[in-house]
Automatic annotation (TrEMBL):
PROSITE patterns in the cross-refs: ZN2_CY6_FUNGAL_1 (PS00463), ZN2_CY6_FUNGAL_2 (PS50048)
InterPro entries the record matches: Zn2-C6_fun-type_DNA-bd_sf, Zn2Cys6_DnaBD
Organism: Favolaschia claudopus
Protein name: Zn(2)-C6 fungal-type domain-containing protein
Organism domain of life: Eukaryota
Coiled coil: none
Length: 753
């Protein structure tokens, strides 16, 4: 063979694309990065993930260069790795066997994320069921596999699997109430003989759960042991999501994956960026026209309103810009609801009982909460408003809106009181068919939404008051006003010099003192105005703390809501500030031991899922709460007279007419008639009744009552004619705390029908 005729080298065939590789079909790669014919036919994005073969190269190490970089960034050792930068811990990651995957999807039924609208749209659960819960099934697409990994990572926060918790104490099932509450008081607990499952579950009557204390040490041990496996699963999911490019293609599964990944990252991260949340919103906007075209119902609009509200509250709590726009709300939640004044008037005028009124009011309520969260960031606590003095007009508008929103919430919660049963029928969030479960879910959403826009507003006013006081002190002490307005202060040495100075210097001194006094007066008035606003916001915040505490008592005793950490812990700190401000020798002021005990038990339950509860700051708050409860010597659980947070309280037994020998009796120290109606002795205004109250079957003595008219109307309305007072002679007026003024019973005649 001649030297000029060499055999032509055969070109290597390019690798198959990911879509053809997943379907196990022949791929025809095209040159210059063009999509293959099958992807063009299926109208999908043609991506090819390169497969790294052979042994990986060792990273080159340059000592001198490393030292030079370290010298340029001396604080680099203090950086904390974010979850997106985590590396997969293969030893801690549990094996993704079909048995473990099936277990995680069962745990998903106990998480509130099961009711997310994206979870309803996708068919990921049925897809995994058809694949026998195998993540390596041939027909399982890469996007579905990543979505399943995200669900597994989220469900691992509630899992009791041995590969998650490892050796040590753990519950026998997700219904093992005895594990969460220790021995549960012995005789008050019985095995649930009505159930055929042998999962070791313990049945605790709902009326006794409020007297129980969660087993904090054991639950925190579970949270610490699961942290390594949870972070390993999260890192594995993040890597798989990047490899699959879930940010690039808008599908329902990719949108759900991005939503779950954002939750997983924000569970223990303080990063100011949220790339997965931004990708989720972009996917939702791209898919929304198709959803609106095919089968978008009113229930779907309410679910999207709830999702948008939770997203808005999360951004508000972190002082981050909202990703939800008003156009997004209108597109997926329907047109804008009527103003809060109209909604309040319609609720006060309606007498129709049942869950329909509450459910019809949920979407407008959630819509208004989202708008208030946006208004708070744009006008009060956002980065741009903080560059300027606080606008009094914006604060007054927000206070007025919060007052209206709280009145609407009081009416809705009072209706839920009459609908909720003493004992929740199920711990599963997916069980949403009954009226009781729907009422409890609505009550929880109302309380969380109201509390979510109150506390950030209150904290912002607190910070502004501190800044105003500091600027005022700076003027007095010679530090100026801090804003470039007015003159600087004058110390004693300068005054001595000016005393022997020339007339021109004395004139300058007088002008400087005049500017200083003017600036001081301006700052003092600003501080007094801020303190007035803070006092009004404080009253709303205290009621918000009571509402969120009732919402937590409204839930089943054992619930798996790890994301409640960002809601519960700030309110727990607020309650401790209240009781410690009131003084160590007495009660808790406006916030009593019942709220403190509720938040403490919720933090203990959260310790089962999160290791954040074992952080020094959280442990300090919990220790202070326990010390306060011991100091009161009357546990909050002992004073709970209501079997459920949103159920009417335990009422006194009916007294037969024949046994009533006197018209007066000793009033109890505190009789709880409703979450909104509390009888307290020695009030300034008294309500005297000459006849017994027919609705409650007991004799009424001279006592004082604090209530709001909307709550009383909604409480008595479902009882019909029996709710009206048997006696016709009613003296005195009711003290209306929220309405500003008193009213007589003749103004409640609309309840008689």
């Amino acid at each position: 063979m001649s030297a000029n005729h060499h055999p032509q080298k055969r070109l290597k065939k390019p690798p198959a694309c990911d879509s053809c590789k997943a379907r196990r079909v022949l791929c025809h790669p095209q040159p210059n990065g063009a999509p293959c014919p099958r992807c063009v036919e299926k109208n999908t994005i043609c991506t090819t993930t390169p497969v790294i073969r052979g042994r990986p190269k060792k990273p080159a190490f340059h000592p001198k260069r490393s030292l030079a970089v370290a010298s340029l960034s001396p604080s680099s050792s203090t950086l904390v790795a974010t979850p997106a930068l985590e590396t997969t811990d293969d030893d801690a990651c549990p094996p993704l066997t079909p048995e473990f995957v099936s277990h995680c999807f069962e745990c998903l039924e106990f998480l509130p994320q099961i009711n997310h609208p994206l979870m309803k749209i996708t068919s990921i659960r049925s897809t995994l069921h058809d694949c026998a819960y195998s993540l390596h099934y041939p027909s399982l697409t890469p996007q579905a596999r990543v979505c399943a990994l995200a669900i597994i990572s989220m469900a691992s926060l509630a899992s009791f699997h041995d590969s998650i918790l490892g050796p040590g104490s753990r519950p026998s099932s997700l219904l093992d109430w005895g594990f969460f509450y220790g021995d549960c008081g012995g005789g008050d607990v019985a095995k649930d003989n009505d159930n055929d499952n042998d999962n070791g579950s313990i049945f605790v009557p709902w009326s006794t759960t409020n007297t129980r204390t969660a087993n904090g040490d054991v639950l925190r041990g579970c949270g610490l042991r699961r942290a390594r496996a949870f972070r390993a699963l999260r890192a594995k999911t993040l890597k798989a999501a990047w490899d699959a490019g879930v940010m690039l293609e808008s599908t329902e599964e990719n949108a759900l994956t991005c939503f779950l990944l954002d939750l997983l990252e924000q569970s223990d991260s303080t990063s100011p960026t949220r790339p997965w949340a931004a990708a989720c919103i972009m996917h939702i906007r791209a898919l929304a026209p198709r959803w609106r075209k095919y089968g978008h119902t009113a229930s779907d609009e309410s679910r999207w309103a709830g999702f948008f509200m939770s997203e808005a509250l999360f951004a508000t709590a972190r002082r981050m810009p909202m990703m939800i726009t008003l156009h997004d709300q209108r597109h997926l939640c329907g047109s804008e609801p009527p103003p809060l004044e109209t909604l309040l008037a319609s609720l006060e005028a309606t007498r129709k009982p049942g869950i329909q009124v509450v459910w019809a009011s949920m979407k407008p309520f959630l819509f208004h909460v989202t708008n208030l969260a946006r208004e708070l960031h744009l006008e009060i606590n956002g980065d741009h408003p903080r560059l300027h003095p606080l606008s009094s007009a914006a604060v007054l508008r927000y206070l007025s809106a919060l007052t209206l929103l709280q009145s609407v919430a009081s009416l809705l919660l009072a209706r839920i009181d009459a609908l909720a049963l003493p004992c929740p029928p199920s711990d599963r969030w997916a069980d949403s068919g009954s009226v009781d479960t729907t009422a409890r879910a609505c009550g929880y959403g109302i309380a969380v939404g109201l509390a979510g826009v109150i506390l950030p507003f209150y904290r912002e006013l607190q910070m502004r008051c501190v800044e105003a006081a500091g600027e005022e002190d700076g003027i007095v002490n010679g530090g100026g006003n801090g804003s470039g307005v007015g003159g600087a202060g004058i110390d004693e040495d300068a005054a001595t010099i000016f005393s022997s100075a020339s007339p021109s210097q004395s004139q300058y001194r007088a002008q400087s003192q005049s500017r200083q006094s003017s600036a001081y007066i301006i700052k003092r008035r600003e501080r007094e105005r801020l303190q007035t606003y803070l006092g009004q916001a404080h009253e709303i915040a205290v009621q918000g703390a009571k509402d969120i505490a009732r919402a937590l008592r409204h839930m089943p005793p054992v619930h798996y809501t790890p994301l409640n950490w960002r809601v519960v812990f700030p309110w727990a700190e607020f309650c401790m500030e209240e009781v410690e401000t009131a003084g160590a020798g007495g009660g808790g002021g406006w916030v009593d031991a019942e709220e403190v005990d509720t938040f403490l038990n919720e933090l203990k339950i959260l310790g089962y899922s999160l290791d954040s509860v074992s952080a020094p700051r959280a442990l300090d708050v919990m220790n202070r709460m326990e010390a306060f409860l011991k100091r009161t010597k009357t546990p909050a659980s002992a004073s709970v007279s209501s079997p459920s947070a949103f159920c009417p309280a335990s009422l006194p037994a009916a007294t037969p007419a024949s046994t009533s020998t006197s018209s007066t009796s000793t009033s109890p120290s505190s009789v709880l008639l409703s979450p909104h109606i509390q009888v307290i002795p020695q009030r300034q205004r008294e309500l005297e009744m000459d006849e017994p109250v027919a609705a409650y079957g007991g004799e009424a003595d001279a006592f004082s009552m604090s209530m709001d008219s909307a709550a009383l109307a909604a409480l008595l309305m479902p009882l019909g004619d029996q709710a009206w007072m048997a006696g016709q002679q009613v003296h005195g007026v009711l003290d209306v705390d929220s309405g500003g003024g008193g009213f007589g019973f003749e103004e409640l005649d609309f309840m008689r029908g």
